[in-house]
Amino acid sequence: MTEPAAAPGPDPVESFVSVEDARTRLEAAGYLVDPAIETVVYLADRLRKPILVEGPAGVGKTELAKAVADARGAELVRLQCYEGLDEAKALYEWNYKKQLLRITHARGGDAEGGEAWDEVEDDLFGEDYLLERPLLRALRNPRDTVLLVDEVDKVDFEFEALLLEILSDFQVTIPELGTVTGDHHPFVILTSNNTRELSEALKRRCLYLYLDYPTVEREKQIVLSRVPEAPEQLADQLVRIVRSLRQLELKKPPSISETLDWARTLLELGFASVDEEVAKGTMNVLLKYQQDVEKATGHLKLPPRPEMN
Ligand SMILES: Nc1ncnc2c1ncn2[C@@H]1O[C@H](COP(=O)(O)OP(=O)(O)O)[C@@H](O)[C@H]1O
Ligand SMILES: [Mg+2]
C-alpha cells in the first residue's frame, strides 16, 4: 500500500535576508532603489510591519509593491481604494444570486415538500456562496502574498478603522464561518497621494516611506532601465529638462511616468535630442494643463533647431 500524499503545506516565503538582498532582488525585478527604500523594505519584512508609502503621483509607489511581490515570487493582491469603498467590496460578501437559486431549488426540488430548512441554511453560508474580496484573499492565501492597499487616502475614516483592525490582528471574524487567520502574514504596502491626513493610529502601525521626485541621476537610471532603446545622452537631457520644469510652480508637475512617456514619444518620432521645436511639439506628453504648457514654454531655454543647408 502506498502512503497517502501529505497535504501540501503553505508555500515557502522568500524573505529578504539583508538590506543588500532587498536591493539586489528589487533591482532584478526592475525597480531602482535608494538607501531609504531598500532599508524600509527589509525592515518591514523583519518586523512584519506594513509600509505606508506617501508622495506625489507617479513617483513609483504602486510600482514598489509590484516589485516587492516580484522579488519574493509572491502573489500581489491589490485593493484599489476609492470613495465609498466598503467591507463588502474589500473583505467579503455573500453571493445573493446563488443563494436565491439554492433556496428556489430547495423549495421546488422535492415532491415531498422540499428539503429541510436547516440543511439549506448550512449550505447558504458555506464556502461555495462566499465571494472573497482582496483583504480576505490576502489573509487566506496559502501562497506568500503582497497586499497592496492602493491610494488609501481615498477611503473614509470608518473604513480606515476596519483596515487598522485587520492590520493589527491579521485575522477577521465572519459570523457564519468563524475566525479566519492565514498561514503567514501578508507583506502589506499602503500608498497615499496625501489628499488627506491619515489617522495617527494607522501611521503608528506602519513604517513610513516618503517617495519624492528622484534625483537627476536616479531618474536617468530609471529611464535607461525602462526605455532601454533611449540613448544615454537623450535620457540625460530629458531628465534635466523635466527637473527644471518641476521647479516651476505648475498645477501638475511631470512625474516619472511622464518622463518615461516623453522618452518613448521622442524615440517614436525619431528624435535623438531635444531642441526648442521638439520640446514645444511634445510638451503635451509631459504636462496636462494648458496653463502649465504656457508657463513651461516661456521658461524653457533650448537651442533652436540648427539651420539645414
Ligand atoms: N524606482 C523605480 N524604478 C523603476 N521604475 C520606476 C521607479 N519609480 C517609478 N518608476 C516608473 O514610474 C511609473 C509610475 O510609477 P507608479 O508606481 O505608477 O506611481 P505612483 O503609484 O507613485 O503614482 C511606473 O510605471 C514605473 O515604470
Ligand atoms: Mg499608484
Secondary structure class reads: alpha/beta
Q: How large is the share of residues in beta strands?
A: 5-15%
Mind describing the biggest β-sheet?
5 strands, parallel
**How many domains, in number, for the residues?**
3
Report mean pLDDT, rounded to a whole number: 90
Radius of gyration: 26 Å
What is the straight-line distance between the termini? 90 Å
Helix percent reads: 40-55%
The total beta strand count reads 9
The CATH topology of the largest domain comes to Rossmann fold
Heteromolecules bound: adenosine-5'-diphosphate, magnesium ion
Per DSSP, the total helix count is: 14
Q: Which stretches of 5+ consecutive residues score pLDDT under 50?
A: none
Q: In sequence order, what are the helices and strands, one letter per element?
A: HHEHEHEHHEHEHEEEHEHHHHH
**Judging from the principal axes of the Cα atoms, what is the shape?**
elongated
CATH architecture of the largest domain: 3-Layer(aba) Sandwich
